[in-house]
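Q: I'm writing a short methods note and want an example of a predicted protein-small molecule complex. Could you take the sequence and the SMILES for NAP and return the bound structure as tokens? Please keep the output block clean; save any remarks for afterwards.
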Amino acid sequence: MNILLLGGTGTLGKAILSKLAQTDHSISVLSRNARSSTENIRWITGDLADENEHQKWLKNQDIVIASVHGFFHPKGTQKIDGDSLRKFMDRARGKIKHFIYISICNANLDSSVKVWRIKGETEIHLRRSGMDYTIFKPPIFAETWWKYSGKKAIETGRFFRFGDLPSENSYISVESIAELVTKSINNPIARDRTFFIGSDQTYTDQDLVKLMETFANRSIRLIQLPKILLHFGYYLTRWIRPGISEFLEMMLWLTEHGIYTDDTKVFDLLGVYPLSAESVWQAKQRTKAE
Ligand SMILES: NC(=O)c1ccc[n+]([C@@H]2O[C@H](COP(=O)([O-])OP(=O)(O)OC[C@H]3O[C@@H](n4cnc5c(N)ncnc54)[C@H](OP(=O)(O)O)[C@@H]3O)[C@@H](O)[C@H]2O)c1
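A: Understood, no commentary inside the block.
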């Protein structure tokens, strides 16, 4: 099969790519930064926002896996997660055998968080496209949390959080999601399904600090920053950099509510044994990995 991966340089995309590279599929990856192609991976340089290019990228492809977001794109998430990805789906219709979309567990039309409404609309767009589809809805990636928070907390002995409410989050490893994605390819069990990827383990930031302390065998101070700073950043970036503002809006929501799903049925359905977030962080601490 010819597979086109959007977002193959991202935290999840890299894990998907490394699993796909061990199969017989022929893989193309879209990235805004040029890279040299290898024997079994063809790199395409391009921006999803360049909608005139979509047709060209889709030529001869059988499967699309979309693992992108536009938080850090100058045009923001309405453009990337919304308009351009939906146009891409329109162009894929009739050509692609299976479209796999990585959304997020909180995506829905009624959300007060803009990016989750946009992703919710994109999910509906895909369901109505007539293409065979699979949508995955994970909570926070364990690896993303480690990279931006856990590793730094261990190195500096300080962990920063906004607000003072102990919100709970669930964390899932990108290795487990990547395995689910590769097992879903052209799999009738996954056809036209929307899967939450849950975990029965949830952590507050206080729990995480304790955990990092046991891993690193040092004390870590939890520093609570006023939420007003997030509000300020949200308004400041709103017109200059909409994607960043949307990211801060999501962070604001997370400080109060957290993000979790305990729906783990997909693991049994696709025969994947999930890695625990704790084991991922422990291994990273042991090997000093990013
Ligand atoms: N991180 C989390 O905790 C989390 C949790 C739940 C759901 N998700 C969802 O999972 C998916 C992947 O997230 P991630 O954290 O792995 O992302 P990430 O590490 O931030 O990577 C984003 C990817 O999107 C690509 N991209 C961004 N804008 C693009 C554009 N205009 N054209 C082409 N490619 C573009 C980037 O490629 P280049 O920079 O190479 O162009 C990169 O590969 C997203 O849909 C996200 O919403 C993430």
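A: Remarks, as requested: The domain at 2-140+173-198+260-274 is CATH 3.40.50.720 (Rossmann fold). The longest helix spans residues 76-92.
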